[in-house]
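Chain A, query sequence.
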Amino acid sequence: MSLEIYFFENEITYTGNELRPHWISEQTKAFSSSLVSFLGPCDVSTNEMVDVEDKIEGEFIKARQMIHFIAEWFQDSLPLAVTKQRLFIASFCDLLNQELGKDNLHTVVREGNDLYVSKSGEKRKLSVSIVTASSVSCLFHFGVNIEPAGAPIAAIGITELGLNPSILAKKMLSLWQKEEKEISKSICKVLPR
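Chain A, predicted structure.
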């Protein structure tokens, strides 16, 4: 149940089409549960939306530049994948607040599977995320604004917070690989009752 991690140095535009079985394998030539990250624009049209509620409302996702995380888990159920999504986002929220430090005027908060940044009573959205299931796996996308230009709502990006997106992405990949390893150990080390 190990998790492979990869950071793609080349820029990739996330359109929603990447959230499909074996997309990661096509990029890495590895066939295992994996988590990848890359930087690039986000341009998800209504037709590519996986969230049925958002699709009905005619929503879309757009940003000039984001940190993208895509995971594919081959052994998980959809409820477990959604639980992992929430834990991943909570962990990223913790990482951001640590990086920002106690003296920073910004506070990052998690509401469900979304992150927001509050400053002087103003709240702006920092991220988007979705989990879905295919016939062979569960898939996860988490996008964090770097430059939110084009976003259809009040948004903020990592650049405004003064943080380095590549460093954040690589730290999160390592943190999550460690988390998954510890989860696997916890499953395997207990005596049956």
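The mean pLDDT is 92. The radius of gyration is 17 Å.
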